[in-house]
Amino acid sequence: MLKIKIVQLIVAGLTYLLALFPKVLLSHKEKEKVQPQPQPQRDEESEWEESEWEANERYALSWRLAVESNNVRPWRTVPPKCHTHVQNYMSSGQYYRDLNLIVEHILLYASDLPLSSDAMDAWVLDVDDTCISNVSYYKAKRFGCDPFDSAIFKAWIMKGMCPANVAVKVLFNALIARGFKVFLLTGRDESLAKITTDNLHNEGFVGYERLILRSPEYKGQSAVRYKSAIRKAIEGEGYRIWGNVGDQWSDLQGECLGKRTFKLPNPMYFIS
């Protein structure tokens, strides 16, 4: 009888627990629903840094477009917030891809021109950052964020180490082969004639009609006025200027510009 009694008590206890279990389970689920989930901690500083970088990049893209379209002028240095963007643009390969594309279009234009038999069809090319490159120099100057120093830049020129812009050298050789008389027109003064000539020749710029440097007559004049006068003199000799290529808008403004002008990219400095 005692055993039966014990079994009955156990069964009764189990029955009670089974009846209670759904209520406990439901209560637990309700607590899970109500209990808020822990939120991951937010690194506010890293988010601020990321948003600052994005804001600078957006600004720099707009600034570079405004510079290349000649809507920002004059400007002395690259804004500090644009440093990373300009550095990446000049170093990542995009600058050279842009040069290649522009030169492709210049070659298309030049290939269709009807040249005369009088050997007076001409083309004008700028020198610095058109034919030969100063990117290595400007890399040390934070790609134009540091102020221009004429003495340091002249010391760089005197090394004669400016490499060719390969795309422009291809253009130069194609123009020579086609029969154009190519004039190299630079803002460098005549005291730099030998080192500039040697640098150009060493980089493969051979066969041009004339290298023209700034004479004392044009000292202190703006690039626009100086280069306009030179182009006018070239046309005065009877040459027809079919094309004019430069990295500065001052290469492409003023008088006697030629039939077409072509602007090469340069977000590192501005010459008026």
From TrEMBL:
Cell cycle keyword on record: no
Keywords on record: Glycoprotein, Signal, Storage protein
Residue intervals passing through the bilayer: none
GO molecular function, one term: acid phosphatase activity
NCBIfam families: plant-AP
Function noted in UniProt: May function as somatic storage protein during early seedling development.
Family: Belongs to the APS1/VSP family.
Protein name (Swiss-Prot/TrEMBL): Acid phosphatase 1
